[in-house]
Amino acid sequence: MSLRLSGPIGAALAFSLPAVALGAPTETSLTASDSLRGTLRTAGDRKPISGARVLAVPAPKGLEAGALEEAEFLDPALDAPAWIRTAETDEDGGFLFEGLDATRVRLIVVAPGHVRAETIVDTSDLPRRGLVLFVEPDEEAAYRTVVETPESPPSGQVKSTAMEAEEIRTAPGTQGDPLRALQNLPGVARSPGGLGVLVLRGASPNQSRVFLGGHPLPRAFHALAVASVVPAAAIDRLEFVPGNFGSRYGDTTGGVVVLHPAELQREGTHGHARMDLVGVGAVASGPLGRGAYLVAAQRGWVDVVLRTVETIDPAQTFLLPRYYDYQAFFDHPVGHRGLLSARVLGAGDRVQSRTLAFSESGQEREVAFELGSQFHRADLSYRTRHRRWSFWMTPSVRFERNVTRSPRSGNASIRNDGIFSLRTEGTRRITQRVELTVGADVEVDRYQTRVTTGAIEIFGEAEPRPASSQGEAGLQTSTGSYLALQIALGRWTLAPGLRASAFTLGEAAEAALDPRLSAHWAFAPRWKFSMGAGLYSQALIPQRSGEGDFIQRLTADVAGAVRLPASIQSLEPRAGFAPVTDAIDVARAVQGSTALAREVGESWLFELGAWTRLRDNADGQSYALNGTTTLATKTWSTAYGMEVLARRSLGPRLWGWLGYTLSAADTRIIDPIGERTDQEVIPSSFDQRHNLVVLASYRLPRRWRIGGRFRLVSGSPYTDLVGSVWSGPYSFSGVAGLTHDARFPLFHQLDLRVDKSWVLHRVEVGAYLDVQNVYNRVNPEAYIYDYDLRTRTNAIGLPIFPSLGLRVDY
Amino acid sequence: MESRFACALVLLWGAAGAGGCGDFPEAPWVLRAEPRLLGFRVEVVEAGPNSAEGLLPIPADRVRSQPLPGDVVELSAFVASSDGEIPTAAIDPVWLLCPVGPCLSVLNEPGARDACGDLVPERLPCLLPAGETSRFVAPNFDPALAFEEQVGFRVALVGHSTDDTTTSDCLDRMGDRSKPRWDGCVAGYFGLTYGPTTRVLKAALEAGIEVTGEDFEPEDLDFPVAPLFNPESVPLVIEPTEVEVSFFGANKFVATSDAVTVLEAGAAYSILEAIDPRDAQTLVGLGGDGVVRRLRSSPSFSVTTDTPDTLEFRNRGDWVIHAPQTPGHFEVFVLLSGPALGSAWSGFEFEVREP
Predict the structure, then answer these.
(1) % chain B with pLDDT above 90
(2) A86-108, pLDDT tens digit by residue?
């Protein structure tokens, strides 16, 4: 529907708005000789502009039809028009002028959040479908729409930090990857090489979980941690809870990261394609019936690049990581208050280690070892409200497949999992002050494993022993039910919660009851003090697992023996296979934390927090395949620390933060078994005492953006070699020193990023240059030892590294 | 350069970056100023009671490397530096006999440095006679121990490679639970395995030790078998790589360890032969099913040099000697490693002359 114009409006009022650059018409139309119908759309994303004013005035002689430059804009003080007609656009951006007295008019567009535009239109030469004017958005307005300063942390959580999509997209040094962007926040350890490992408050990565749409992701990163399994385009917001999370989440003793699926938009069909050194990806979204959809996919192409290098240099053989992921989301309203969402997503990885082999035809590459992992998942989510209740139910089915294969030996391990997952939750406001949430979640995992052993040649036997294959099947489950209250008592908000968990594996079963409590005290305006404590449980199932030891082997292939930081092992893809035995253990942790927050102005948040965690690792016994149990070294993990955050929220020009974490994470040997040393306390693999991140991004005129990140981080622990023993020609066995007793030197690095975008009528083109380690500091991530393992000869670290990316938004 | 490029992609893929790589370690076949262990040799110098019968003879010019309990054994080591082969006594060696399990890390425990007795060590290492070489009687089986605990040993050699430390200090540091650095110390392990297998089993049964899991009778072991012996060094047969190969092999020539071989400056030479075919030997084993199994095996060889850039290891085990561009001398050491840890070594001196 188009709105009729109103009467003449004072030119002075209309022209008091700032004059800026001009959009341009692409189509013109005339439905009648004296009327003009048109539509206003935002240049780039083509969204209709509602509530804009369009003024029509007589066109002066001498100006050609088309968009006008700023210098040609009408100045009413110098050249008052003979008449002015005004229209206001409707919801679809449409406008209509009738009864125009001229065939050539000047259209002046004044739209909130957009620059002023003027164009000369010849009403006798317009297409039948109507005039479409694309108006360039105001640069500052582009950011206003996404500024959502998180409100107080959700009940049951002492501290929760959100990152907006724009922050994720433009954070320096992270290539727009959501979970790598997260690593800049206090409480998250720096990962080796800037790659993706989620180490939250000193907890190893397998102690923390990532959830999407209420269900856990089987893993957060693709193999070798190049990228997250869910790209930024598929999420609306990332919520980071490094500890003391509420009773909604279980089976984890570290922290949680909650990825909120993208909120689907119905305003036209949109999408983007991106390409950088890591891979390519594309996203499309738009309306579908009464609902909306989003489809996205990405494919890493590191393997393609490396294969090309191998073609150029036949002597090279690389480790080849290949990955893909995809997402298809669909939202549809149900009734007045309900929303039904269907989501399909999945990811796949394959890492191949190859060697040069010699044959009659010459040199060939053959696969020595291959590790594959994939998951495919389908979710339904239904949310609705009924009186004081709001309900959420989301069932999900997931198929996982993990494979290791060694073609040369014929050995292979395969595990298939069919998983049903269900989460249901109801929230009721009981009184003005009390809100109750009850819910349950369950995961039922039916697994099948098959281990194949290739033919084996036995010393002296004429015929090799034939290949064999053995399969197993089983059921493991994880069930939780939870209850949480949010009680407002004046300036206090209390959030007690309780989670009951049960874990089963075959006939074995364990249970845990985890009470949790958090409290928030708004003791003064804009001040808030939060604290929390609780118990957390995580099932431990001893499993035979396949892991490539890729990085260690590859680095050793390059040059002798390599010592890596302990944490780098977490970059390795791993695959779990059959449980060793029908046994299940539960690790228990107690967490406590506190935070003091102060908001300053509209955009600044200052936060100071402290936390501690004590975990019983439930590792006092070791299970063998034959069902026997032996004593093993029993350990506890302790971690404590302090976090400081000074954050400027995403705004028109500047966003960023200064984050500092002081922490210690140790493993304490409670009851040692086996060879003894004097060590009773071992620094954890993820112990980083100091971690300072200063990150800022600033918008410049003409759609330029510049950002930087500076990091100053304590070196990661590693186990050094103190000596070596000759064990054969060119063969030395390293003698390890005390576990994690050595540290890499202090890490510091500056990364810079420059973004530039160009808004065209129907698309927006963005390019970025992300330069890591601008001043080329040598930050060792690994040490190479001489052949006899007695002296270090070199250190490997990230040198200055520019990365170029291109993105086209449709 | 290739290594550097590979290094650039080692840890950090794609957009995550590339590894900054500087100097790389010297190739392991280049000797340095600090003395280095290159090999060990076991010689049965006097047959004991278990070797009195049931053993086939070995070639007269070879020395047995596979002892049986009661044999007199002499151990020697090959130590060299960029100055060439040096006497083992220069590192003030201490020889240790280690049981299955920890060896050097328990040296500070009481009794760990006691002299070895007649029986195999049970839990801790013991000291063998000191000196340039170590001669001792291979310990007898202990009926109180399981067969698996006394059929395989390790011999350890500890010495010092710099003048600012002593072997005693090295032993202390190696046994220290706080794990200090071993700078200035030299250490090496090698296995000492009794054999031939049939004779070992028979000796164990005769000593009253139960051999579990084996499906055979003592009389099954009564067949003669030859013990393994050490290979011996032979002259190197080398050939220029850049010269067209003659049908008659006229380009080949021989380098001997007792004479200086002349090479042309800047030329490269492939090592064609370094092993005496007579040193191929047959390993005899007895499976759990009582079936005797045999496997023929030849020694392998490894080389080291006192001068950088004079050796190149090519694919498929080919070694190439590169004569430097400028006249001078350099030495290449060849270590032969045979089955059952038999070994031999010798040095070959080369003189480089202008063409």
Answers:
(1) 55
(2) 999 998 899 988 887 778 889 99
Three-class DSSP category at A398: strand
Domain span at A299: 161-458+466-524+533-809
| Interchain proximity B20–A557, CB inside 8 Å | no
pLDDT of residue A80: 82
* Amino acid letter, residue B298: S
Closest CA–CA distance from residue B338 to any residue of chain A (Å): 12
Closest in A195, A305, A560 to B12, CB measured:
A195
Q: Are A629 and A617 in contact (CB under 8 A)?
A: no
**Three-state DSSP class for B182?**
coil
Nearest to B331 by CA among B261, B275, B235: B261
Contacting residues of A for B18, CB less than 8 Å apart: 798-799, 801
Of the CA atoms within 13 Å of residue A359, those in its CB half-sphere come to: 7
* Rounded Cα gap, residues B246 and B237, in angstroms: 15
Domain count for chain A: 2
CA B354 to chain centre: 37
Residue in B closest to A571 by C-alpha = B11
CB contact under 8 A, B18 and A801: yes
A263 and A393 housed in the same domain: yes
| CB within 8 Å of B282: residues ≥ 6 apart | B226, B294, B295, B296, B297
CB atoms within 10 A of CB A49: 24
Clarify whether residues B35 and B24 are in a common domain. no
Cα of B305 to nearest chain A Cα, Å? 13
Q: Using a CB–CB cutoff of 8 Å, tell me whether A356 touches chain B.
A: yes
Rounded to whole angstroms, how far apart are CA atoms A641 and B282?
64
Tokens found for residue B15? 């957009």
Helix (H, G, I), strand (E, B) or coil at A566: helix
Residues A198 and A63 in one domain: no
Element (H, E) at A178: helix A178-182
For residue B225, tell me if it sits in a domain.
no
d(CA A698, CA A193): 25
Helices and strands counted in chain B (H then E): 3, 19
Is residue A534 within 8 Å of A499, Cβ to Cβ? no
From CA B188, how far away is CA A398, in angstroms rounded? 53
Whether residues A551 and A641 share a domain: the answer is: yes
User: CB neighbours (10 Å) of residue B3?
Assistant: 12
Q: Of A558, A788, A803, which to mutate for an interface test with B (greatest number of B Cβ within 10 Å)?
A: A558
A676 neighbors B177 (Cβ within 8 angstroms): yes
Residue A260 lies in a domain: yes
Taking CA atoms, what residue in A is nearest to B11? Answer: A551
ipTM: 0.90
CB atoms under 10 Å from CB of A533, counted, come to: 17
Domain termination site, one of A138, A153, A181: A138
Q: pLDDT digit string (tens) for B190-222?
A: 888 888 888 888 888 888 888 766 666 767 777
In-domain check, residue B223: no
The reply to whether A130 and A185 lie within a common domain is: no
Contact B188 A460 (CB under 8 A): no
Question: A253 with A374, same domain?
Answer: yes
Backbone angles phi, psi at B5, to 5 degrees: -65, -45
Q: Identify the H or E element spanning A182.
A: helix A178-182
Confirm if B262 and B350 have CB atoms less than 8 A apart: yes
Measure B354 CA to nearest chain A CA, in Å.
Answer: 33
Q: Does residue A272 lie in a domain region?
A: yes
- pLDDT-derived band of residue A411, with 50, 70 and 90 as boundaries? confident
Token duo for residue A519 = 């409290």
Q: What range does the domain containing B15 cover?
A: 1-28
Task: Give per-residue pLDDT as tens, A774-786.
Answer: 998 888 877 878 7
Chain B nearest-CA distance from A744, in A, is 15
A725 closest CB neighbour out of B2, B179, B188 = B188
